[in-house]
Fold these 2 entries.
Entry 1:
Amino acid sequence: MERTLAILKPCAIERSLIGEVVKRIEQKGLIICGMKMMQLDEKILRAHYSHLVDKPFFPLLVESMMTSPVIVMVLKGIDAVEVFRNMTGSTNGRKAAPGTIRGDFSVSGQQNIVHASDSVENAEAEINRFFRPEEIFDYIPSGLYDLYAKDEI
Ligand code: TYD
């Protein structure tokens, strides 16, 4: 099954939205197979947002991502990257569709609650950046065949 990385950003922690977001992930049927709180620093953010280092908003982005700890999660499922990107919604919370996490909980282009990997390749690189192998648990939920048909797996 595919894996993706989710980060509950400092704005989500500060606004007590951890439960809301985790609830949506669980209700959808994505399997949480790694989860921890950590304080990000500039080094890891420069690597994580390497595609944005030259943007004018980069210093503010780094500052906002360090204002409190974050929660990082590894999510697993068929097409997990696409499924969680769709749940997350477009980058700017003011434009994100209602029903998405950003559309329902954010009015900002920066304070947008959650990070979601945007490709399978990036997801694996991001998971390796934020997690040690022993922090990821490759268990199979007992209700797997209530999530998926037998010929989907
Ligand atoms: P990006 O990778 O473009 O979007 P996404 O998170 O939807 O994959 O941008 C990463 C983060 O950078 C985004 O979640 C919030 C921040 N950001 C800004 O602060 N201002 C901006 O104009 C953009 C495009 C992003």
Entry 2:
Amino acid sequence: SRWPLRGLLRIRSITIFATDPSPFLNRPESARQTAMAPRFVDVLVPVALDQTYSYRVPAGLELAPGDLVSVPLGARGATMGVVWAENPAPNPRLHNRLKDVADKLDVPPLKPELRKFVDWVADYTLAPRGMVLRMALRMGEHLGPARERVGVRLAGPRPARMTPARARVLSVFTDGMTRAKGDAAREAGVSTGVIDGLIDEGTLETVVLPPERVTRPPDPDFRKPEFSLGQLAAADALRTVVDQGGYIVTLLDGVTGSGKTEVYFEAVAENIRKKRQTLILMPEIALTTQSLDRFTARFGTRPAEWHSQVSPRLRARTWAAIANNEVSVVVGARSALFLPYADLGLIVVDEEHDPAYKQEDGAHYHARDMAVVRGNVAKIPVVLASATPSVESEVNARRGRYKRIHLPERFGGAHLPSIEAIDMRREGPPRGRFIAPRLAEAVKNALESKEQALLFLNRRGFAPLTLCRACGFRLQCPNCDAWLVDHRFKRRLVCHHCGFAMPPPAECPQCHATESFAPIGPGVERLEQEAAELFPGARILVLSSDLVESMERLRQELDDVAEGRFDVVIGTQLVAKGHHFPKLNLVGIVDADLGLGNGDPRAAERTFQLLHQVVGRAGREEGRGVGFLQTHQPEHPVMKALILGDREAFYSSEIALREKTAYPPFGRLAGLVVTANDRHGAEAYARTLVSTSPISDHVRILGPAEAPIAVVRGRHRFRLLVKAPRAFDLSAYLRQWLADAPKPRGNVRLEVDVDPQSFF
Ligand code: ADP
Ligand code: ZN
């Protein structure tokens, strides 16, 4: 069958891996021989292994593919696994030596759809299947019966001895309702001891409550917005897509502030009416109260949430509720793709261009791409939403492989911000300063009109480099090929690659000069210092991921900004994502060139998307938004496209360049990163790999080259880049290659990254 996914992925028959016998075999046990032919299953376990293991099914146990089981696995003892296939005929010599499945778990089986997806992702990314399965079983060790909830209700006569506290409890219970003990105590303003006393007297009695629901069912008609004509047309088109069902990818392409969320909520509403489940994927950091509140306002109840901050217990309950079809809508980060939906009918990928969708550790996968795969496997619609689509999605929309739905205008007549360049070569700030006079002036004017300003700099900390003025020594990480970043708020010098941190040294380690250190370049903390001097009295907030104490705190701070409790926000890319700040009309990009010079083939695309999104925070409600780009290269195509508001020009030139150079989506890439404790070990294995690569007219192997950051966490790094034409099955080539190549030995490690997004 034809596979329309961005032209890169093609349906491949699912590889059935040779099943190995259990590595730890039972002794032959003649007593266990029965007249009945024994049955066997192949079980996949959630560890970093590709193959399944065969087990014997004990008499009386009914097992089918997808069932969750507990199996013995060597030194690990009992391990959770999933029956991947029946195995009618394992090697007869092994029959009596295979171990028994220990138990079948009381949870719904993983559907064929999810198993096929796990196989597909593993096959494509070269991650071991067990590692991919682990993402589907990430409900942790808390799976099992939910903790019993005990409720209390009125049962008997009033107690012999009345106290004011007891009276308050009784008045709470006069409505005849059953309450959790803690809730009742809180409502009555007493300790739970008072409740216990009343239970002892027989006035109250305990009952077992049904487990708490993860969410209540959303109401598709709870509060429908009044749509503009453009929104109405887009919402209708999306509703039709959901109504017709089946696999189709739609790019919801709307400018910032056009109401993409409200519009795709109509697709969600339609899917709820069809009583099917919806997954809304978001970049983790965008999962703020704001987005969840908007869901609640539209559907009358909160969605189920799935991200790293969900507690293990709630995680387990959510997992089970999704598998039991008790949850209708999940809003989640990329790992939510692997949940065991009972009846998934729609996937929405919000901010589909966001680089945070790429998982870089464990299994390397891109959640947007895999969402499209999951949609194809499940035969359901997928909606990708963005104001700045990835080049991949843009190409697919231009070629008609994706359906495009346009929202060309901001909602409510708001204007898109106008963007101006500040040429830092001619009108830059004085030495040691980073805010140009023209930008400072604009911020002052905004503050005088009681508007907010956002200064954007994608650099955490105070200064990216600290240098001894006496001898030129630069403070470097002892474990990495990287400078230490000065984090003054925390009084630490920190390595952004390995997390190494130390207090600022009292003297230069080289020349022993004191007070000789000078910060070089700005981070957001240094900008705050400058802003405090330039704008006295302004309420300034720095938003940066390293300063975020908790998701709750971040949510609070974003709300504070939205409600106008700060005048100047200084932020890293944390502030770029989908937030809606009604009083913000001015955005200043402090260093627009920052992402352009790093040799990454996606540098231009990334910079365009990021700056467009950040500037798009301005002028979303009242007034006219203005954006300033401080740049040394105002003639760069990215800057020109931003200033002229000419998105199409940017995409056209970027697409032409990718086509000419055969970079994605017109060619395929894989990154191979070899690391070792010593430079020689890493380089030697990288060379061995190249010398054993299968000969192919289609494949070009670049490298090995020392990685741009040559040492991380004390590990030396070499990179290979493998390039192939679009129609070439690069995963199969890599698998063949790595199966035949000598395995890395000792402390040498190899990481494979198909469709790499980062090249450091
Ligand atoms: P986008 O995601 O396209 O940047 P949003 O969905 O965040 O845009 O919408 C921008 C703002 O406009 C939000 O506050 C949203 O609630 C509001 N909005 C959009 N459409 C409507 C509508 N039809 N009725 C009321 N408010 C709307
Ligand atoms: Zn380091």
